[in-house]
Structures are given as structure tokens and as C-alpha cells.
Automatic annotation (TrEMBL):
<dbReference type="GO" id="GO:0008021">
    <property type="term" value="C:synaptic vesicle"/>
</dbReference>
<feature type="transmembrane region" description="Helical">
    <location>
        <begin position="102"/>
        <end position="123"/>
    </location>
</feature>
<protein>
    <recommendedName>
        <fullName>Transporter</fullName>
    </recommendedName>
</protein>
<keyword id="KW-0472">Membrane</keyword>
<keyword id="KW-0915">Sodium</keyword>
<feature type="transmembrane region" description="Helical">
    <location>
        <begin position="498"/>
        <end position="517"/>
    </location>
</feature>
<feature type="transmembrane region" description="Helical">
    <location>
        <begin position="72"/>
        <end position="90"/>
    </location>
</feature>
<keyword id="KW-0813">Transport</keyword>
<feature type="binding site">
    <location>
        <position position="81"/>
    </location>
    <ligand>
        <name>Na(+)</name>
    </ligand>
</feature>
<keyword id="KW-0325">Glycoprotein</keyword>
<keyword id="KW-0812">Transmembrane</keyword>
<feature type="binding site">
    <location>
        <position position="472"/>
    </location>
    <ligand>
        <name>Na(+)</name>
    </ligand>
</feature>
<dbReference type="GO" id="GO:0046872">
    <property type="term" value="F:metal ion binding"/>
</dbReference>
<feature type="transmembrane region" description="Helical">
    <location>
        <begin position="337"/>
        <end position="358"/>
    </location>
</feature>
<dbReference type="InterPro" id="IPR002438">
    <property type="entry name" value="Neutral_aa_SLC6"/>
</dbReference>
<dbReference type="InterPro" id="IPR037272">
    <property type="entry name" value="SNS_sf"/>
</dbReference>
<feature type="binding site">
    <location>
        <position position="343"/>
    </location>
    <ligand>
        <name>Na(+)</name>
    </ligand>
</feature>
Length: 730
């Protein structure tokens, strides 16, 4: 507060305070809050405490609220539990040591996942704004955090909805028997019927994905024009998303009752069905067999941290947006732990399902391998290339088991060591099939789809699976769209229906990039470059702005005021030291990995019917780095603009209820100040209740508490043309 203000002058003198701070606030009411700049800094630096107001937390500011706590929890679960839990987490488990991977994942979930998730829930719930409003309030110079978060949401939403479009296409294709990807198509060549060569060289499901669904080109440079079937599927996906979020949480909250719960029904059905499949136990045992030597590798911890980071949706703005519609006394700590645990358990459940089904698929493929190679051996026996003496007497080719084939294969390999390679026999080991790691679209649209063709009543299971993917994607898209629309609605006066429809229309036309015949390559590009690095930087700055600029002690006090109980002291150290260090290590490792990994994509080569890695052309490289730069550009721009006062302080855009609460708190504080100044310091009782003395480890003294609290009065009367920059809390 300026030293020339009336309140400060009288505070430093012995005069009795006669002018109410609430009256000063009332005098400032006609001021234009959008154009004015109000100092958000306290005497100790940084914005004022996000203390608990005495007003009703419901709809006093006209902000919508969740109909029930269950609706809110389902929304957060639907946003955090997405496609990555089904097709990314199982792959990382298999790649990084099986069951041993769960150890670093769980440790990092405790160290950075839950604390940062709790942090986002708390700031959103108390300030009741979207990502832009929250970070403008906490630290105006870092207000670019919210803008960058919004832009990342936009980039991710563009390609994420394309995946929902693919799932919609497969969903409708599943209503036929046999499934269209169960067999290779037959091509007529005059009187001859031949199998499609591209399908014969790969597999029926691979051919259907690359040729029938995507009709993909061989390079990213060859667009190939629009794929009209994928274009219609994308249109359907955006219509569904638009209808789900058009009324804000009033519509999306109701959708979440189904979209968040239905995937669990399907996963449990698949798990029960999968456990009765031959080879399912082999798949699960392979999955959870720990490889402890791999667990200590740095790459495993980096990928575990990245998965924790993205699994909870940190930095996207959806978490903050959802929590901003809560009551201010909601127990967000319980919510953070509950949603994080549900997310972790869901990942394990999905892993069990995936590897039960892939174990069955591996068993089927292994038996197929045995049959094919047994026919080769019979041919060599009939042509006298191999002697009958090489075949163990108990082997029966009519009922050949995998163990019999393995024994026969071993004998032939030893005896025919010199010419064994020319025979072209394969070992047909189940372990080799289980080690074929697949993730992403390769898991959902090829491997898992192929496994379902061997299920009895395969169309039913296919319909259920792709309907589950649609709902998983829809829950994440609702959170992503809320992360986009909520900050805009908080900042500008616009009808949410118009904004929602406008965003969906613009996103659909931008999404046409991904439904070209080369569109899958652009999906890969956006997935690799648009979110990873920018989002990590956003979360680091979120952590720093709260823990070091706003102040961890002050934030802990605010949480105690808001929740009504004292958060565990461990959060103080996690927010201030552990999480920032972990995030800095993560972003450094990500930059190094990006630098040493050649930028490129896996192109489908039609003639060879296989994928081949290709480097991005120059224009595509420029596009990759432009995605990163554009997403991070608001951070320095907003900082520079506010440092030189070129941009109004966004923290002034407070809700009506916030200004009322400040006036009421200031009035109460004025009474306390009169009472204190009217007595000797030794006689003056603390103006704070005893439970508010806690500010975290290294608590501030009661005198400092009074000083900091008194400085809130400057919040109403201390308007400044040039607000002082926030100072970090020691």
C-alpha cells in the first residue's frame, strides 16, 4: 500500500482511526475494473491471501455450480481417465520392467502427481476462475500460464477428437458378421481370385486400418486429399462434443454420469471374459513379472514421470475449470487423492484387460506359427530334405503341441546346423509374441481388434470396445473444451452456447488437416510436439508461482482457512522443493531426448506393407517447432507486457462476490485494528483465531500475521498506476 494512503498514515500515528476501509472500498466501486490497475501486492509481496470469505459460496457471483459432489468427481475422473490409460500405460509397463514399473510410477504419483493435482484443484476452487483468471490473480506477470494452457488445450483437442472419429467409424463397422477386418479381401483377376497383396504381406486388421480406414499415403508430403469417411466421422465427433458441452457443466455434468461409468462396465466385462480365454493367464503373468534390473534405468523414471503428468491432466486447465464450479469449502484434498487413486487403479485394470486379451492373441498366433512351420517340416520330410529320424517318435503331426514342436525344432537346429537358416523355420515361442510391444492406435485398432476377431460373438465385443473408447475420449474432450471455454467466458461477456458452437466449428475445419489421407502423420506430429514440452513448462511455472512467488506458507494458511483443517506439512516441502526439482529434471530430460532423437514419423509403405521410419521434410520440421513456440509464446509476451505496463493487470477482473468479500473482510479488519491500536501492545490480543497461527513449517509470528492481514486494507484503497512486482517469499 502506498505510504501516502490515509490508512497507512493513521496507522503510523497515534490518531484514532475514524474512516472505515469498507467506506474506501465503496468509494472505489464506480471504477472501471477492466481498465484500472489495482495493486495485488501485499506488504510482504505477492497477491493477497486467498482467504475464506464470509459470504455464501454458491451462486452469489452468478457462477454455475455442480449439482452434486458425485457429478463433480465423475467429471474429474472422466477427464483424467482417458485413452492413455488403456493404450499407453500397459505399453509402458511391458517396456519398462513389467510389474517393476509400478514402483517408480507410484513413487512419482506421490511426489509430483497428487501434490500438483491438489494445487490445481485448490486454486481453481478458491478463486473460482478458469486458468487465465487464476494465474492472473496469483501472479499477474505470469498470467501467460493460463493463455499457454488454453493454447495447448486447443492443439490437443484438434487431434484428440480425430481419434474419437476413428473410434466412431470402427463402432459402426462392428455391426456386421463377420467383422470386416477378420479376413483379407479377395481381388478378382479375370477368372483367378487372389488375396490382396498388401493384406497378405501384413494382416487383415493391419490392412483394414491403413488401407480401408485411413487410405494412407506413403509420405507426409503427399496429402492425398480428404478421406470423406474420416471427414464425416470427425464431423460426428465434434457434434457429439458440442452437444455435451453446449450448456457448460449443466449439460456436461449429466453426460459424465454415463461416459465416466460405462468404460468401467466394459473393462470389467472384458476382464471376466478374458480370464476364460486360453493364454490369458500367460499374458498377465508376463505383464507382472518384474524385471528389477530395468527399474533403475533413468529412462524408466522419465517415462513414469511423464505418464503421471499427463494421466492426471495437469496443466491443461480442465482440472482448474472443473474445480472453479465447486463450493469454496469443498474438501479438495480428498478429491485430489480420490481421483488420483481411481486413475491409478483404472490403469492397472486396463493393463490386466489388455494383457489378458493379448495373451490370448499371442497363444492363437503361436499355434498358427506351429501349424505353418509343421507343414514346412512335413514338406521337407516328403522331399527327403530332412530325415524321418530327426522327428521324435512320440510326435504326432495331427495333434502337434507347442512343446512337441519346440522339441522337434531343437533337434533339427542341432543336426542341421550348417543349413538350418535355409530351411526358414521359426522357433514359435510364446514369449516372442508377448514381447511384441504395441501402443496407441497400434494397440486399439490393430492388435486388440485382431484379438477380438477370435472371440465368440466377436461383433458384440467389438461394439462394446469401441463404444468404450468413444466414451473415454468424450470424457477427456469435455475437460479439454471446458479448459478452453471457461477462461474465455470469465474474461469476455459472451454467451456460452455461441462460444461453444463457434469453437467446435472452427476446430472441425482446422481438424480437416488430420482427415487427409496423410492425416495420421500429422496426428503423430501434434502428439509429439504440441503438448509435451509446453505443458511441462506450464506446470513448472504454476508450481513456482504458488510456492515461491505467492508463498507456500501463505498458501498453506489459505488452505486451512478454506478447508477448515490443516493440510499435512509434507505438502509444504513437496510444493516448495520436491515437485519443482522433479519437474526441472523432467523438462531437462525431455529436451535432451528431443535433441538426440531424430524428428520423424513411421510411414506406411504400401508396396512392402510395413512401416518405415522417415525424417520430416524441412517444412514439417518448421511446423513441429512452431507448435512448441506458439504454445509457449504467451509466457514471455505477457510477462514483458505487464512488466512495462503495456497490458492491464488481469487480476482486476474479480467477480462481484470477491469484491463483496473483500469489503466485508476489510470492515472486520478495521474493527480489529481499532481494538488493537486502542490498547498497549502487551495487552492487545491476537486478532486471529488460534487455529490460524499455522503458516506451515517455520510459522510466522502473530505480529507478522497482523501486519500481513492489515495490509489487505490496501487492497481496497491502494490503487496504483504502476503496481510493484511480486516479491518471492523467503
Amino acid at each position: 500500500m502506498p505510504k501516502s494512503s490515509k490508512v497507512t498514515q493513521r496507522e503510523h500515528s497515534n490518531e484514532h482511526v475514524t474512516e472505515s476501509v469498507a467506506d474506501l472500498l465503496a468509494l472505489e466501486a464506480p471504477m472501471d475494473y477492466k481498465s484500472s490497475q489495482m495493486s495485488m501486492n501485499m506488504a510482504g509481496g505477492g497477491p493477497p491471501p486467498i482467504g475464506k470469505p464470509d459470504i455464501s459460496p454458491d451462486l452469489e457471483d452468478g457462477r454455475p455450480a455442480w449439482n452434486s459432489k458425485l457429478q463433480y468427481i465423475l467429471a474429474q475422473v472422466g477427464f483424467s481417465v482417458g485413452l492413455g490409460n488403456v493404450w499407453r500405460f500397459p505399453y509402458l509397463c511391458q517396456k519398462n520392467g513389467g510389474g517393476a514399473y509400478l514402483v517408480p510410477y507410484f513413487i512419482l504419483l506421490i511426489l509430483i502427481g497428487i501434490p500438483l493435482f491438489f494445487l490445481e484443484l485448490a486454486v481453481g476452487q478458491r478463486i473460482r476462475r478458469g486458468s487465465i483468471g487464476v494465474w492472473n490473480y496469483v501472479c499477474p506477470r505470469l498470467g501467460g500460464i493460463g493463455v499457454s494452457s488454453l493454447m495447448v488445450c486447443g492443439f490437443v483437442g484438434l487431434y484428440y477428437n480425430v481419434i474419437i472419429g476413428w473410434s466412431i467409424f470402427y463402432f459402426f463397422q462392428s455391426f456386421q458378421y463377420p467383422l470386416p477386418w477378420s479376413e483379407c479381401p479377395i481381388r478378382r483377376n479375370g477368372s483367378q481370385a487372389i488375396v490382396e497383396p498388401e493384406c497378405e504381406k501384413s494382416s487383415a486388421t493391419t490392412y483394414f486400418w491403413y488401407r480401408e480406414t485411413l487410405n494412407i499415403t506413403s509420405t507426409i508430403a503427399d496429402s492425398g486429399g480428404l478421406n470423406w469417411r474420416m471427414t464425416l466421422s470427425l464431423l460426428a465427433a465434434w457434434i457429439i462434443v458440442c452437444l455435451a458441452v453446449i450448456k457448460g457443466i449443466q449439460s456436461s455434468g449429466k453426460v459424465m454420469y454415463f461416459s465416466s461409468l460405462f468404460p468401467y462396465v466394459v473393462l470389467f466385462c472384458f476382464l471376466v471374459r478374458g480370464m476364460f480365454l486360453k493364454g490369458a493367464v500367460d499374458g498377465i503373468a508376463h505383464m507382472f513379472t518384474p524385471k528389477l534390473e530395468i527399474m533403475l534405468e533413468p529412462q524408466v523414471w522419465r517415462e513414469a514421470a511423464t505418464q503421471v503428468f499427463f494421466a492426471l491432466g495437469l496443466g491443461f486447465g480442465g482440472v482448474i475449470a472443473f474445480s472453479s464450479y465447486n463450493k469454496r469449502d469443498n474438501n479438495c484434498h480428498f478429491d485430489a487423492v480420490l481421483v488420483s487413486v481411481i486413475n491409478f487403479v483404472t490403469s492397472i485394470l486396463a493393463t490386466l484387460v489388455v494383457f489378458a486379451v493379448l495373451g490370448f492373441k499371442a497363444n492363437v498366433m503361436n499355434e498358427k506359427c506351429v501349424v505353418e512351420n509343421a507343414e514346412k517340416i512335413l514338406g521337407y520330410l516328403n522331399s527327403n530334405v530332412l530325415s524321418q529320424d530327426l522327428i521324435p517318435p512320440h510326435v504326432n503331426f495331427s495333434h502337434l503341441t507347442t512343446s512337441d514342436y519346440a522339441e522337434m525344432y531343437g533337434v533339427i537346429k542341432i543336426v542341421k546346423e550348417d543349413s538350418f537358416a535355409q530351411l526358414g523355420l521359426q522357433p514359435c515361442l510364446l514369449e516372442d509374441e508377448l514381447n511384441k510391444a504395441v501402443q496407441g492406435t497400434g494397440l486399439a485398432f490393430i492388435a486388440f481388434t485382431e484379438a477380438m476377431t477370435h472371440f465368440p460373438a466377436s461383433p458384440f465385443w467389438s461394439v462394446m470396445f469401441f463404444f468404450m473408447l468413444i466414451n473415454l475420449g468424450l470424457g477427456s474432450m469435455i475437460g479439454t473444451m471446458t479448459g478452453i471455454t471457461t477462461p474465455i467466458l470469465d474474461t469476455f461477456k459472451i454467451r456460452k452456447e455461441i462460444l461453444t458452437v463457434g469453437c467446435c466449428i472452427v476446430a472441425f475445419f482446422c481438424g480437416l488437416l488430420f482427415v487427409q489421407r496423410s492425416g495420421n502423420y500429422f496426428v503423430t506430429m501434434f502428439d509429439d510436439y504440441s503438448a509435451g514440452l509446453p505443458l511441462t513448462l506450464v506446470v513448472i511455472l504454476e508450481n513456482i508461482s504458488v510456492a515461491w512467488i505467492y508463498g507456500t506458507k501463505r498458501f498453506m494458511q489459505d488452505l486451512e482457512d478454506m478447508l477448515g483443517f490443516r493440510p499435512y506439512s509434507v505438502y509444504f516441502y513437496l510444493w516448495k522443493y520436491v515437485s519443482p526439482v522433479c519437474l526441472l529434471v523432467l523438462i531437462s530430460a525431455s529436451v535432451v531426448d528431443m535433441a538426440i532423437s531424430p524428428p520423424g514419423y513411421n510411414a506406411w509403405v504400401q508396396d512392402l506393407a510395413t512401416e518405415r521410419f522417415q525424417s520430416y521434410p524441412t517444412w514439417a520440421l518448421v511446423m513441429c517447432f512452431a507448435l512448441i513456440i506458439v504454445a509457449m509464446l504467451p509466457l514471455p509476451l505477457v510477462f514483458i507486457a505487464r512488466h512495462f505496463n503495456w497490458l492491464p493487470d488481469g487480476s482486476n477482473k474479480l467477480s462481484v462476490s470477491y469484491r463483496k468479500s473483500l469489503a466485508k473482510e476489510a470492515s472486520t479488519l478495521e474493527d480489529e485494528t481499532r481494538f488493537i491500536l486502542g490498547k498497549n501492545p502487551s495487552e492487545a490480543p491476537s486478532p486471529m483465531p488460534s487455529h490460524r497461527a499455522y503458516l506451515g513449517p517455520g510459522s510466522t509470528s502473530p505480529v507478522e500475521l497482523i501486519t500481513n492481514s492489515t495490509s489487505i486494507s490496501g487492497y481496497g484503497s491502494g490503487y496504483q498506476t504502476n503496481p510493484a512486482p511480486p516479491k518471492s517469499e523467503s
